[in-house]
Amino acid sequence: MKRIIVFMLVLAISALNACKESDPPLPDNVVQFESAEQGLDAATKEATIKLKLSRAVDAATPITVQITPTGIAYGTQFTTTPAANGNVLALTVPAGSSETSFKLTKTDNIFLSGTETVDLAIASATSPVLVGTTKSLKVKFTSIVSTGTTLTLDGGTGGSSAVNSVFADLSNNTSTPIRRAAWDLGFYSGTDFRVILNNMTGAAATALNKTDLAQVTAADTVGLNLAFSGTNPDPATMVLLDDVSGDLTKTVIAPVSATDAENKVYIINRGTSGGVAAKGWMKVRILRNGTTGYTLQYAGIKETTFKTVSVPKDAAYNFKFVSFDTGAVVDVEPAKARWDFVWTGAMYKTNFGTADVPYYFADQIFINHLGGVTAAEVMTSAVTYDAYAESNIATTTFKNDKVVIGSNWRVASPTQTGVRTDRFYVIKDATGNVYKLKFISFATQDGGERGKPKVEFKLVKQAI
Question: Looking at CB atoms within 10 Å, which of 32, 244, 253, 421 has the fewest?
Answer without folding.
Answer: 421
